[in-house]
Specification:
three-stranded antiparallel β-sheet, single chain, alpha+beta, about 50% helix, 31 helices, six-stranded mixed β-sheet, 15 strands
Amino acid sequence: MNNKHEPQLLTVQQVLADGLYSIPVYQRNYAWGAREIGQLIADVNDYAQRNAQNLVHDYYIGTLVVYARRTEQHQHWEVVDGQQRLTTLSLLVSVLRAMYPELEGAMARMPLQFECREASSQALKTVFAQPLQAAAQAKDKPDGDDASGASSIWEGRAIIEGLLRELPEAHRKVFAHFLLERVQLLRVDLPARTDLNHYFEVMNNRGEQLAKHEVLKARLLGALQQHGEHAAMKVLHTVWDACAVMDRSVQSGFVPDLRKRIFAADGRLLLVKNAQQLVACFGGLDETTAAPKSLMQLIADRPRIAGGQLVATQVGDDEEDEESKAQFGSVINFPNFLLQVLAMMPGEAFESTPLDDKHLLTAFEPLLRGGADQILEFGFRLLRCRFLLDQHVIKSSVDSQGDEEHWQLQRCKFRNDKAVLLWVNAFDDAGQDWAERLRMLQAALHVSYMLPTRKHWLQGVLRWLYQQDAETAIDGAAFLLALEGLAKAFVLEEGAGGPEPVTYEALVRRSTQFFKPHRPDSELVRALPSKLTYGRARLVDFNFLDYLLWLQARHEDKPGAQEWRDFAFTSTRRSVEHLHPQTELFTGNSWDDDHLHALGNLCLVSHTMNSRLGNSGPEDKFKQLVSEKQSQSLKTLAMYSAFSVESAWASGGAMLRHQREMLGLLEAAFAADGLINGAPAPVEAVE
């Protein structure tokens, strides 16, 4: 152990190999979930792939603050700050060691323990020893309140394995070596006799940093001021603030007089069609001109936030007060939405815009170098894209609780001549099911790509919506046809193409249509059985199948069909489970890899359910899965239906029949020249 107090810049491998780290009892339990773990893996993977192209070198991931503790038995580091990241890295390297035996020397033992929390420490040791079989041990842990936090460690392990398996094999190996050798932390060893209580008080009362998007706004306003465009400054300032509050409609960010000038009363159209008309809307209004502000002014003037929600500074009449309470959960945050809009700007300078807000300021440099007209054009596109997002993209309702997400597809219109706002269904035609199908398919895509950096589906949707005639309302059937085409392209074509595979970026930029029909005998369709296997099948593949099964249930009138029609997509189902287990239960029980890892033997479950199922046999797994039908995927229920017919789950029987049924659904969808009809596909008999 290094006794010097100078901060050390160390690689992940060096940090984990240098001594034992202890999480003191006064620190909270491990608490990172899918969002935090997913963001860390996405960030490292982004830099790993860029490093492989010699675009970057090392990646600094943060600071680890420690305090040296020495006893008669041993010495160790007490983790003062950074324990969530350190625990995640320990779990991550444990799983990678199991995937790649050549990395076993990277971490010779689990370097982390929890003080006075034996269950958590034991969970870490088990994950280190058998990370890919840890679900079996997790299955036997006690349910209920887990004061030690061990359940979060089991959950974290399952999340990590699932996210790593989503990466292409070639990328995953590059990721593993980059993580160990090029990702760095600054380890700070506090001096002896440091008052840790005072240190914690200082750390917990640090001032809030200015967000990057607020810095960006100041820069854009400053650029407009240099051009003498004071009217444009007022427009950008108002539009930016209206668009920045993502849990309210964009209309609510404008005073009623401006609302009437910008938005149609029925909520279907923007009345302004270009940047010049937008500027004209502000003429004659009794408002002061926006001026570029210093960073301190921005901090002082920005809206107050409490509990993650905007706090109103004024309360008008009862109607407007009710309007201020109409909140929802957006599928994207504001910094990443800015990048989505920037990627749609015309010109080669914006074609490679990243969707990662780490690069927010650098991504906007071409726009800052452009003229005032280009900045104002971005302001108009920001407004129109935010309007299209509000009116035609799903959002979660304000009363969504816990893991249950209630997806809605609504538009915002004027309730009366005062331009007070009211949310109504996005499409009025009750005789069509377009809106419900749009809602379900968008939810399927959203839960497949939760990280903002992977929301290419949203880029495709916004591009298609933006290209439609601004003089007429969006046609629901045409929108659904485009969205189904986008989903089919993601499932069938993304990653295909040999040495230069088709990318998400290329798919969403297709100028005419996202997808053209593929016959069952086409090369891509014939390759599906080998593509949709364990380690290669992605979340979007399973969720698109659930969408097809849901469509099929809407056409069927049989017992239990209503239960299928009530199915809902959720972000908690992210773990791929083998129904027939990978571990041999008894002699002669094992399946060959072709059957074991085939699509027919795989289902999507929550990470918690994955840990509970462990290495149980198919019958025991079905008992647990069916006991919670409401939380299971439709493919899982389809597997249970096949099992129930034969009362067995055999590789050449129920599993094979189920696989043929799933592939038949996909083949019919890919061959459809119009909307997917959802009718049951014929299934070949199983010998």
